[in-house]
Design brief:
Helix content is 36%, strand content 16%. The protein is of the alpha+beta class.
Length: 176
């Protein structure tokens, strides 16, 4: 009698549950990917709306603000033909975004809002805590940079003379 050495292998599990699970997951993902419809808002007529209440705290007009700020900081303005440009700090945008051209006529200031500054921003002689950015013309900027260059060259020349003076004094008079 021959003994069978083979032991029967256990039956393989069915793959049907795996396919069902995969189909369910793909269906759920498809549903999630569909665009959602917004809730339909009821139309409101003017008679349904409550009467507008005046606000208790009103933001001051921008023109009033620039007039007051410029009056306090006008000593830093650089004028050219009676006009200058400034940018006012805007606390909502957190940058100097409100730009104005200021004209001085007979000691009075006239303000005109402009979309952006057209002159270079003044980088010298202004306090860093200023709520205004002041400008200067290109000619004024070039003149200032020319003066700075002259001062720098003078300082370099003076330093070179001072560093060479001790060497010249150390030499003996007879050249030996």
């Amino acid at each position: 009698m021959e003994e069978e050495s083979e032991t029967p292998s256990p039956p393989k599990p069915s793959q049907v549950p795996s396919w069902i699970s995969l189909g369910f997951v793909l269906g759920a993902l498809f549903i999630l990917a569909l665009p959602r419809r917004g809730a339909v808002e009821p139309t409101v007529t003017a008679s349904d709306q409550p009467a507008a209440k005046p606000s208790e705290h009103r933001e001051p007009l921008r023109l009033t603000t620039i007039e007051a700020v410029f009056a306090a900081w006008d000593k830093y303005a650089v004028w050219s033909n009676g006009t200058t440009e400034v940018a006012l700090w805007n606390s909502e945008t957190k940058e100097f975004s409100d730009c104005y051209e200021v004209t001085k006529v007979g000691g009075e200031y006239y303000f005109r809002s402009i979309p952006s500054l057209t002159r270079p921003i003044l980088t010298h002689g202004v306090v860093t805590e200023s709520p205004l950015q002041f400008t200067e013309t290109l000619r004024q900027r070039d003149e200032w940079l020319g003066e700075v260059d002259k001062e720098n060259w003078k300082a370099l020349a003076d330093a070179a003379r001072e560093s060479m003076a001790p060497a010249a004094q150390a030499k003996p008079a007879d050249g030996k």
